[in-house]
Known about the structure:
By secondary structure, the chain is mainly alpha-helical.
Amino acid sequence: MTMMEQGIQHMNEQQYEEAAKCFTSAIEENPKDPTGYINFGNLLGIVGDFERSLAFLIKQLN
């Protein structure tokens, strides 16, 4: 299972800190893949950090 898949699983299980760690690792492993930024942005939105969520979602556009 990839770090991205693990992050999604943790997010679905409401284990948000673990999900954040996995998404961070996935972004570090492949910073050009926008999926990590999208998933991290979604996670931040779920926990109510909308400003940072928007920043991650915008970053994936670059």
